[in-house]
Amino acid sequence: MSKFKIFFIAIIFTLSLQTNLISQNKPGSFADLAEKLMPSVVNISTTTIIKTQSNPFPFKFPPGSPFEDMFKEFGTPQERKSSALGSGFIINEKGIVVTNNHVIQDAKDIIIRVNGDKEFKAKVIGKDPLSDIAVLQLETKEKFIPVKFGDSDKARIGDWVIAIGNPFGLGGTVTSGIISARNRSIGLSRYEDYIQTDASINQGNSGGPLFDMNGDVIGINTAILGRNGSIGIGFSIPSNSAKIVIDQLIEFGETKRGWLGVRIQDVTKEIADVEKLDKPRGALVASVAQNSPSDKAGVKAGDIILEFNGEKIEEMKQLPIIVARTEVGKKVKVKIWRNKKEIIKTITLGRLETSEDFKVAEKDTSSKELEIKDLKITIRKLTKEDIKLRNLPNQTSGLIVTKIENDSPLRNSLEINSIILEAQKKKIRNANDLNQVVNQVLNSNQKTILLVIYNSQNQRRYIGVKLD
Fold first, then answer.
1. Which residue, 55, 134, 393, 401, shows the most beta carbons closer than 10 Å to its own?
2. Whole-number Å distance between alpha carbons of 36 and 137
3. C-beta of residue 204 within 8 angstroms of C-beta of residue 233
4. Which residues pair with 184 in a beta bridge?
5. Pairing state of beta strands 419-423 and 426-427?
6. Domains of the chain: which residue ranges?
7. Residue 234: which of 244, 225, 247 has the closest Cα?
8. Closest to 147 in 3D by CA, of 204, 54, 211
9. Catalytic residue among 40, 87, 131, 132
10. Per-residue pLDDT, 360
11. Any catalytic annotation for residue 132?
12. Degrees to nearest 5, angle at CA 176 with 173 and 190
């Protein structure tokens, strides 16, 4: 046999072997896995009461009129029900369910459908807005089929995954895809380390599980990119991060996060050059809270935290996540870059939820939700904590959209968590500002409102909408 034939046969054999290996890694069907997991995934429907004040007069006062505030208290308080849908999954045979906090936020009633037919009422065991996780208990003595958590740290980009949930209220729906990226941050919550997937995720999938091919939960589906439905970019809370929060909510009904007591920022190339650091890495301490664990340990503004409890800090955003999941009261070694050399500090972690910083932030974020009746949206005032979490300019003011009714004129133009910055080229600082502009538009001939917003990805956009 000639050398050419031997070489040719060798190439064919190698290509055939590679093809077989690829086909072996790709599942022939997800049917068996889906059949096994479907009974553990639940559909969640909630009812929220929205209070409004009706206008007692058959006319409207001109925008800015002193009579507007004087007579608004004579309106009749009205309540109406608003419904929402989401997903969840059972982690205990006694009916403990995990979902997103935003699925059940402010809910008066929570109904959970199991296996497509049985419905149960549920109560909240604990919820955590900072990580967007909630734990519920089904109010029944029946036994259920639970799923278990996998190790999300072992999940690799390119691994196959399936998502099961309740998109658009259709009930148990299975979609498949791969892990597209890891360690994503999109500006929705304080602690972000999302798994990105191209498995189709839509409205109603929130709170549902992302499974690996062993049938273990490696993520909680939380957000999508694109307001009109899935475009192949969805985000899930990694199971390893979620499980710490879930265990605390089950045991204590609240979270107990580690706390350093520092405000931090990115280490830029310029800062690294000035500080004679080999490359931009770590977290720069901008300020230290008085009497905080860091203050007591001698950490100073200008220090660069390079390592925490043996974990290297390559990017600033890693530090809050690592600190938060560390046990309160634990003594940790922190490697710091100061005066062009490394030093070690030993810090005894405090508890975030009992710190003054957290109390101020919590008070700041508990701003009242109000309905803009003519726009059929619900909003709340942008807070300092929102600005910090979403990395917005410090002087940003506006209103965060928390709910959009199905018949809202803005339904196809806005998405939840959009920030209304301006209306008709006027800065919007509170609900009254927006109501005044809306009234002016409705009393005009054109009836078109021009809004300037930040969308949920913090992109500045101009939107023109016709109001009926």
1. 134
2. 22
3. no
4. 194
5. antiparallel
6. 3-35, 39-138, 152-252, 258-353, 367-466
7. 225
8. 211
9. 132
10. 56
11. yes
12. 90
CA 458 to CA 61: how far, in whole Å? 35
Q: Which residue has the higher pLDDT, 30 or 413?
A: 30
Q: Which of 206, 241, 292, 294 is catalytic?
A: 206
Same fold: 39-138 with 152-252: yes
Domain 39-138 has CATH 2.40.10.10: yes
**Helix or strand or coil: residue 433?**
helix
SS3 assignment, position 234: strand
pLDDT digits (tens, 9 = 90+) for 172-213: 899 999 999 999 887 777 788 999 999 999 888 999 999 999
268: Cβ contacts below 8 Å, ≥ 6 apart: 280
Q: Which of 374, 434, 429 is nearest to 60 (CA)?
A: 374
Give, rounded to a whole angstrom, the gap between the first and last alpha carbons of the chain.
83
**d(C-alpha 92, C-alpha 137), whole Å:** 10
pLDDT at 461: 87
**Cα 423 to Cα 467: distance, rounded to the nearest angstrom:** 13
Distance CA 161, CA 155 (A): 10
Please tell me which residue in 40, 45, 87, 102 is annotated as part of the active site. 102
DSSP at 116: T
CATH of region 367-466: 2.30.42.10
- The class of domain 258-353 in CATH terms is mainly beta
Are 308 and 323 a contacting pair, CB within 8 Å?
yes
Phi, psi (5° rounding) for residue 381? -75, 140
Backbone φ and ψ of 437, nearest 5°: -65, -40
255 against 68, higher pLDDT? 255
Take residue 462 and report the two structure tokens written for it: 């101009």
**SS3 state of residue 390:** coil
SS3 416: coil
User: For residues 53 and 69, what is the distance between their CA atoms, to the nearest angstrom?
Assistant: 12
Other Cβ atoms within 10 Å of 15 Cβ, number:
10
Residue 8, token pair as written in the block: 């040719």
Average pLDDT, the chain: 85
C-beta neighbour count of 202 within 10 angstroms: 21
Sign of CA dihedral 83, 89, 91, 93: positive
Q: What is the pTM of this model?
A: 0.69
User: Residue 211 contacts by C-beta under 8 Å, 6 or more apart in sequence?
Assistant: 33, 37, 147, 161, 162, 163, 164, 217, 218
206 is catalytic: yes
What is the gyration radius of the CA atoms in the chain, in angstroms? 26
CATH of domain 152-252: 2.40.10.10
Amino acid at site 320: P
Q: How far apart are CA 203 and CA 135, in angstroms?
A: 20
| 102 belongs to the catalytic site | yes
- Predicted confidence (pLDDT) per residue in 21-72, tens digit: 444 466 789 999 999 999 999 999 998 776 555 555 555 545 445 555 555 5
